Amino acid sequence: MRVVVLTGAGISAESGLSTFRDSGGLWEGHDPMQVATPEAYADDPGLVQRFYDERRAALPRVRPNAAHHALVRLEDALGDDLLVVTQNVDDLHERAGSRRVHHIHGRLRSAWCTTCDARHGWDGPLRHEPPCPTCEEATLRPDIVWFGEIPYGMDVVEQALWDCDLFVSIGTSGVVYPAAAFVHWARGATLELNLEPSAGATDFAESRHGPATRLVPAWVD
Ligand code: BJW
């Protein structure tokens, strides 16, 4: 049985990481969605760096939860027949022990050189725009996919969805594309596990609603 699992911010919410649209809150007086754009970065790189610096600094303070751990048990059972595709830029799937994780929106702990295309592991703040260790140009930016940019590895994801027997969407509001369209690309059965019906809930063959730490282990086990 080939399974593709898509995860969003809701799977990390019970670990203590904020979702984007639930809080309705502002960060330093800005809507987080307005900060996650190339235009915001061009206008005020320091502001955008701070947004990601704070989220990167939060990672050591949070831990994977029961939903992340349940997906590891699923991978133990299915091996390479499970692909986790995450929109999240945190590292909680990897820290739980998941091995086949595809980050379509990038990763907080990676920096990208827009000049030479190198990627570098990154744990500290980016505020001072360190020179790229590969080409020595000062153009490192967060390795994050912002609006208008092309998500990573879409060829791999598209093929996996085309080949899968089951597509499961966990903890995502279903308003950001292309992830919101994956339910239409999937050839197999479809299941949504979310706190509440997402924007695309009616596109799934089945939807279950509640917290991920309850729904995901119940589904896996
Ligand atoms: C729980 C829970 C608990 C809470 N248990 N559940 C018009 C129409 C269609 C498309 C477009 C359009 N105009 C522009 C576009 C494209 C645009 C887009 O989708 N815009 C929409 C806003 C309309 N998309 C893009 O630009 C993308 N690129 C693109 O399309 O390129 C073209 C292309 C595609 C494919 C092939 C070739 C070319 C890029 C999108 C980049 C998104 N980036 C962000 C920020 C960067 C990462 C970061 O900073 O972390 O990614 S935006 C933000 O939204 C972030 C997230 O990954 C993403 C999705 O959010 P998510 O995860 O769903 O979080 P929330 O908060 O929205 O929802 C949480 C859910 O969890 C809720 O439902 C809760 O109920 C639930 N929940 N607690 C279970 N305990």
Automatic annotation (TrEMBL):
Reaction catalysis annotation: N(6)-succinyl-L-lysyl-[protein] + NAD(+) + H2O = 2''-O-succinyl-ADP-D-ribose + nicotinamide + L-lysyl-[protein]; N(6)-acetyl-L-lysyl-[protein] + NAD(+) + H2O = 2''-O-acetyl-ADP-D-ribose + nicotinamide + L-lysyl-[protein]
Sequence positions that bind Zn(2+): 113, 116, 132, 135
Span of domain Deacetylase sirtuin-type: 1-221
Record keywords, A-Z: Cytoplasm, Metal-binding, NAD, Transferase, Zinc
Entry's EC annotation: 2.3.1.286
Cited function: NAD-dependent lysine deacetylase and desuccinylase that specifically removes acetyl and succinyl groups on target proteins. Modulates the activities of several proteins which are inactive in their acylated form.
Domain notes: 2 residues (Tyr-52 and Arg-55) present in a large hydrophobic pocket are probably involved in substrate specificity. They are important for desuccinylation activity, but dispensable for deacetylation activity.
Family, as annotated: Belongs to the sirtuin family. Class III subfamily.
Record's protein name: NAD-dependent protein deacylase
Source organism of the structure: Nocardioides furvisabuli
